[in-house]
Write a structure and sequence with these properties.
Chain lengths: 292, 235, 307
């Protein structure tokens, strides 16, 4: 690797990392919510993101809607999907051993991915709406990634405001701290579970909608997001919601830095090694959280 | 080889901002029965968890027969002769009562099985040896957990609320068993809310409140201790 | 008396299977070979995930590792396929120790996540080391028609895995693995060194797939990342075990036979429906029949643990 690495390159990479990091954080926040409130590992998280991407594609290709306008639409649709999934399937395994919820959401993820393959075929789709980059000094900022960053940042901020200041948001946090106490306080835990799952799906859908403009859309696109979302939660600490955001930024940075020094093929390996290392050294996450 | 002398020195354990165990120190001598009482949330189970290695203490030392055991893994501590029951019964529900006891040992299977059956007979459960533990009644499960703890012949026995949810007859049998264990030289520390049990069984009682030890002494003295009364009945 | 009858039936079945290649068609031999492969895979998955409850979502990694190890040894070093198969098993075992060492120290859910990512990582590594593995272009083995000997080899592997499961489940080691599933904290508190047990189970569960992968590589004569690391393989071995009865000896065998036959008869014609249906079966089994067919029967009729 005889490439001279200039400060400009590093700067470029850091910026790219932060841009994608916020997106990781937003999607991971959804997963963190499900894990925190329901103690369930949602293996189907990635496929939900994938459906969000397809929803955006659908609105864009059928009615020519501005894909960024479809973000709230995709979120709404997937909120409904998530709500429904919880109401019909997931609620049955909330109190079951972890094995059951893992396998159930795994089954759901297979069904979703293969359902998508049947419905949409594996042909790559694309939403060609925004290409090119803005030049800021020596740095090239991909337009679509910057806008994704803005949306993701806004949605994540909104999510945190919701969690911190609204009654429902506080009810969600209370349930995630102690289900028994929440019940005693008169919180309808079942409704909170449905709401949380819907909310998490909406956040995943937003992620999918935003990257629909950036990458190719195909049924398997979500799989790697499931894994990376977990990595983010591990980095940020389980049950630590702000940690999810910071963990996302960390992952974005590490990934981009790794692609600078290694080929992009190995950046996934780097993410994996990072996961294993963190789990070994600080199982409660780099920023401290709850152990399962 | 007699063992079971426990010494806890300045133990600290906190969860986030909550100080579950805040500088607790005490010493247990071999062959005696001790009680650990305190209002709910005073840190009793956390203390047990730290001693048995299930939780990692933040600071402080734990010595078993003079040897430091803090920082060891739970199975290592168990193998050094520490036995423990849980506040909420934790038998292995999909294993039979006999299997629940068998898994704990490693020697020749025939010997282990004989000992397991002997222990089950000791608590009059030999007829249910082949029944899945999950199908047993609450009291029966409690007994299985109790004798499972005895399989390795521990010298230090930690009992977390042994009287909870147990009828009088069964309770008397359990207490009698505990006295006999003490007579054989074992050290027993039990957490209990039932004051009659504590007063009738324990030679020395420790009282915890908000993670701190606020009193220590024979049951009769503890009963009249002002701080203890305050802790239980409010400030 | 009953034991004799069961033993006798088993013996007859084994003899019939051994004589099959003499009478079977090419298709028949292939199908049987695949059934043996699935028995070996599902049975192995059962040893780690069925018994300890630690769900291994990336188990196909061992299959692929065995395939590539054997493939490379046969193609570039002219090893004989039986030796290559052994090497495949060893490679899978080493991989299991390497992955299991760090990952099994984690509690169940974290382990599952780590295993999810394993697949992707191995695929990436195979592409990266293109010179050795042929990368995306795949690896070709010198042609050899060894379907019948491989039939026997795969059959032996299936028998070995089932036998291993029988021995484990009937022993205290197996019981201790189950306590990890039931209540790991209580198990540790009773003096059971859970990490050691998990690691050993994981190691044992990797060898079968490693050998099966090696044999498949030789049989197909050509391997590429997509063919030996597909998620579908993991999904299938999970469905088979869940359906047949996780934690039982014959559950994976039952699941492998029933689902493979069903798959061939009905679903091979509709390539996309079948993984979807498998997903639906997983959901249905987890919700309605979590112990699988044999597990349910075991509970209802008080069958012995080693069924």
């Amino acid at each position: 690797m005889n490439v001279v690495i200039t400060p400009a390159m590093v700067g470029q990479v850091v910026i790219s990392g932060l841009l994608s990091g916020v997106l990781y954080g937003m999607v991971a926040l959804g997963l963190a919510l499900i894990f925190g409130v329901m103690r369930i590992i949602n293996v189907a998280h990635g496929p939900l993101l994938m459906l969000g991407a397809y929803t955006t594609f659908f609105f864009y290709s059928t009615w020519g809607l501005n894909p960024y306008l479809t973000v709230p639409l995709s979120m709404l649709v997937l909120f409904g999907v998530g709500w429904l999934l919880e109401r019909t399937l997931v609620f049955r395994v909330v109190d079951a051993p972890e094995l059951s919820s893992l396998l159930l959401t795994f089954g759901i993820s297979i069904a979703l991915v293969n359902g998508a393959q049947l419905a949409f075929t594996s042909d790559l789709r694309a939403v060609e709406y925004l290409t090119g980059s803005w030049m800021v000094g020596p740095f090239a900022l991909s337009k679509s990634r910057v806008i994704a960053f803005v949306f993701a940042g806004g949605l994540t901020a909104a999510a945190f405001l919701f969690l911190s200041y609204t009654r429902l948001g506080k009810a969600i946090r209370a349930t995630s701290q102690s289900r028994e106490v929440a019940m005693v306080c008169g919180i309808d835990v079942g409704a909170i579970h449905r709401l949380t799952f819907g909310l998490a799906s909406a956040l995943a859908a937003a992620g999918g909608a935003l990257i629909a403009v950036i990458v190719a859309i195909q049924p398997e696109m979500g799989q790697i997001w499931t894994f990376k979302s977990f990595l983010v939660i591990v980095l940020g600490g389980a049950g630590n919601y702000p940690g999810a955001l910071l963990g996302g930024m960390l992952l974005g940075l590490v990934e981009q830095l790794a692609s600078l020094f290694l080929t992009t093929q190995l950046s996934e390996v780097v993410a994996y090694v990072l996961l294993v290392l963190v789990l070994l050294v600080r199982p409660t996450g780099l920023l401290g959280g709850r152990q399962t | 080889m007699p063992g079971g002398a426990l010494e806890v020195i300045e133990l600290h354990k906190h969860f986030g901002g909550v100080r579950a165990v805040n500088g607790v120190s005490f010493a247990l001598e071999r062959g005696r029965i001790y009680g650990l009482i305190g209002p709910n949330g005073s840190g009793k189970t956390t203390l047990f968890n730290c001693i048995t290695g299930v939780e990692r203490r933040d600071s402080g030392r734990i010595l078993l027969d003079g040897v430091r055991v803090d920082g060891l893994k739970p199975y290592q501590i168990a193998r050094r002769g520490v036995g423990r029951t849980f506040q909420v019964i934790r038998v292995f529900p999909e294993l039979t009562a006999l299997e629940n006891l068998l898994v704990v040992t490693s020697g020749p299977r025939a010997t282990a099985e004989a000992r397991a059956r002997e222990l089950l007979a000791f608590v009059k459960l030999e007829g249910l040896a082949g029944e899945y533990a999950g199908n047993l009644s609450y009291g029966q499960q409690k007994l299985v957990e109790f004798v499972r703890m005895l399989m390795r012949d521990p010298s230090l026995i930690l009992l977390d609320e042994p009287a909870a949810g147990v009828n009088r007859t069964l309770l008397n049998d359990l207490l009698e068993a505990v006295r006999r264990l003490r007579d054989r030289g074992k050290t027993v520390l039990l957490v209990e809310h039932d004051m009659k049990v504590v007063m009738g069984l324990c030679e020395t009682v420790f009282v915890l409140d908000y993670g701190e030890k606020i009193a220590e002494g024979p049951p009769g003295v503890i009963q009249t201790n002002e701080r203890v009364i305050e802790a239980y009945f409010g400030r | 008396m009953k034991r004799l009858a069961v033993g006798g039936a088993l013996g007859i079945a084994l003899i019939a299977l051994a004589m099959y290649p003499a009478y079977g068609t090419g298709y028949g031999n292939r199908a049987m070979l695949q059934i043996f492969m699935w028995i070996a895979l599902a049975g192995s998955w059962n040893i780690i995930s069925g018994l300890t409850g630690y769900v291994s979502f990336g188990h196909v990694a061992f299959f692929g590792a065995g395939a590539y190890t054997a493939g490379i040894l046969i193609a570039s070093r002219a090893w004989s396929w039986p030796m290559a198969a052994v090497a495949g098993g060893v490679a899978a075992g080493v991989l299991a120790l390497g992955i299991g060492g760090p990952c099994l120290r984690l509690k169940g859910p974290y382990f599952a996540i780590a295993m999810l990512g394993l697949n992707e990582v191995l695929r990436a590594l195979v592409s990266y080391f293109e010179r050795l593995t042929g990368g995306g272009n795949g690896l070709s083995l010198p042609t050899l028609d060894a379907t019948v000997p491989i039939y026997y080899a795969m059959g032996l592997t299936a028998i070995a895995v089932t036998l291993a499961a029988r021995l484990i489940i009937g022993s205290r080691f197996g019981l201790r693995l189950m306590t990890i599933r039931e209540d790991e904290v209580a198990a540790e508190s009773m003096g059971i060194p859970t990490f050691r047990h998990k690691l050993l189970a994981f190691l044992l569960s990797a060898i079968g797939p490693g050998i099966a992968g090696a044999l498949t590589a030789r049989d197909q004569g050509y391997i590429e990342p997509l063919s030996v690391f597909p998620l579908a393989t993991t999904i299938t071995m999970i469905v088979m075990t869940l359906f047949g009865g996780k934690g039982t000896v014959w559950g994976p065998v039952l699941g492998a036979v029933v689902l493979f036959v069903a798959q061939e008869i009905v679903w091979a014609r509709y390539p996309y429906i079948h993984p979807l249906l498998f997903g639906a079966i997983i959901i249905a089994v987890v919700l309605a029949m979590p112990r699988g067919v044999l597990g349910l029967l075991q509970l209802k009729y008080r069958l012995p643990r080693t069924i």
